[in-house]
Amino acid sequence: MFGFRADGKKLKGLDPIQKIMPHIMSSRHDSQNLCRYDARCEAFDKFIIEQRELGHHFNYMHLVIASGVRLIAMYPRLNRFVMNGRIYHRNGIYISFVVKKSLSANAGDSQVKLCFTGKESIYEIKDMVDEAIKKNSRIEANNGTDKLARVLTFIPNCIIKFAVGTLKFMDKHGMLPNAILKLSPFHTSLFITNLKSIKGESIYHHLYDFGTTGLFISMGKEKMVPVVDNGEIVPGKVMTLDVVTDERFCDGFYFVNALKTMKKIHADPNVLCQGLEELPEDTEVIDVHSRRYKRKMKKAAKKAAKEAANNINR
Known about the structure:
By secondary structure, the chain is of the alpha+beta class. 39% of the residues lie in helices and 23% in strands. The chain is built from nine helices and nine strands. The strands form two sheets. It has a six-stranded mixed β-sheet. A three-stranded antiparallel β-sheet has the order 1-4-3, with no helix packed on it. Strand 3 and strand 4 form a beta hairpin.
């Protein structure tokens, strides 16, 4: 309550315009920006073939998830969310996606959410994704999210509405237990829907008002279209990615630069083979009362004083 949450830290020192945006656009569906991006598949296919010769079996889903993790790690403002008129920075990088238990109309789905540090290589991310899919694709498999949803459906329909409304109220005011936040696929940095796996076209998927999801990527089936290479129109294989973002926690300049970086990663997925040693910080997430911040400032002051003394001696 009072601006404190288990899944994020409230930002201070924001630009006045950005600070007031969550009050102008109070709901997530009111602040959606839509962007369509046709990713060239040749670089993906080349990477997959080269890695297969080394004994690693990748697919497009691995590449999109890994590039999403890397992008959020490199651009930490993408890992923000808005709740109750306040902007927060999320604790950890979370990726959610749906696992269908079988390619059948009657087969159920499982919602999966994975937590990353942002330093992982694509090999580490692949192992985590494969393990989650293997674990949740069994017909009898039930993860924590499935069990929570089942508990809610045990109660009468008229009470479900009240129960969900209570959860929304608790979430809005920071009272939702951390155990539920960890299970909820709607409290995530990025939600990915892979329509390519069922031969479907990409769609602009809405952002959920429940939860804190601020980024949504939809993967469509790949197709051959005319493209321009070296000034010539030639056939090219592309996969459409429809991106939906919450515009309230980032400015357009930051989003555009992040999208450019994502395109560069997709053009050369080999950059994902090495993990990151250091992560940039969200510069506006500063607790001036923390011991770490005070030690940092004290150290900087001593260094400045030492440099000033050296200059005087010269």
